[in-house]
Specification:
Blueprint (H helix, E strand, L loop, with lengths): L6 E9 L5 H11 L3 E13 L2 E7 L2 H14 L2 E6 L5 H13 L5 E3 L14 H11 L5 E2 L3 H8 L6 H12 L5 E4 L10 E7 L5 E7 L9 H14 L4 H17 L13 H4 L1 H7 L1
Length: about 280
């Protein structure tokens, strides 16, 4: 009976308002009926107006978190979130190679949803050259895919070509999240390229809301949770897409400006599966 329950790990920072980062990942692990653990790498002081201060944890403390979790638990899948500098990325890569924490979902947090770059050059190169090659699944947004590949993505054909470029870095499976284009508010199209070369599109309506904090965290965390439960990659991605879209669609009244998505609403997806 020891360690039979599916356990999932997030390697991420703490977002004090609970809308993103480690907190969004743990919300997601819970609603997907898995047990969530965390390696905390940073903490931010933020609210719905923005981030006001941030601190990175000492690398030796980060190493110790990996070590003690590996000593006791059976983590079946993991995901990364925001890793802000090259030394932090390298520490995570080293620990992940040392310990068995299952398949890795990499949410390559490079830009905001609006395209503003978050990582300096050294951190970006470390993510591209050292972390992405470890990924079972990578989940870049539209802007991140452009930065990683050096491509301009103006249409779905270019979106698919960018996924092939990312796969060539060593990533097994890629989902490129479509542009939430406010000039075309009808649909968002996400492209999935699997390790065997097969592909498919996932589409959902564009929801005109400012409550989208934690969207990328939720998608990647849900993929990791489904992998931990034994789902194949394609099924894990499809479920994660539907869960995330549901959480965006049903807005929750939290915060004055840029609020969180609604994980409570996404619990209804469990009911659909149980029928």
């Amino acid at each position: 009976m020891v360690n039979e329950f599916p356990q999932v790990l997030t390697i991420a920072g703490s977002d004090s308002d609970g809308s993103a980062g480690m907190q969004a990942d743990l919300h997601t692990f819970f609603i997907r009926k898995t047990y969530g653990m965390s390696v905390l790498v940073a903490a931010v002081a933020g609210n719905s107006y923005g981030i006001h201060a941030a601190e990175t944890l000492p690398l030796d403390f980060i190493d110790k978190q990996f070590e003690v979790l590996a000593d006791d638990f059976k983590v079946r899948a993991s995901k990364t979130g925001m890793l802000s500098d090259a030394s932090l990325i390298e520490a995570v890569v080293k620990a992940y190679k040392k310990f068995d924490f299952g398949p890795l979902v990499v949410d390559p947090v490079i830009t905001t949803k609006h395209g503003a770059q978050l990582l300096e050059a050294a951190a970006f190169e470390a993510l591209k050259e050292k972390l992405l090659p470890l990924a079972t699944v990578a989940t870049p947004n539209f802007f991140e895919a452009q930065l990683i590949t050096g491509r301009t993505i103006d249409n779905e054909q270019q979106q698919a070509a960018a996924a092939k470029d990312i796969q060539s870095l060593g990533v097994q499976n890629v989902i490129i999240k479509g542009w939430h284009n406010q000039d075309n508010q009808n649909e968002v199209a996400d492209y999935v390229l699997l390790a065997d070369g097969s592909d498919f599109w996932l589409r959902h309506p564009y929801f005109d809301t400012t409550h989208i904090n934690g969207t990328g965290d939720t998608l990647s965390a849900a993929i990791a949770a489904e992998i931990a439960k034994g789902k194949d990659i394609a099924t894990a991605i499809r479920i994660a897409h539907d869960v995330t879209a549901t959480a965006i669609e049903h807005e929750i009244a939290v915060g004055h400006k840029f609020g969180p998505i609604n994980h409570w609403a996404a619990q209804d997806y469990n009911k659909k599966e149980d029928k």
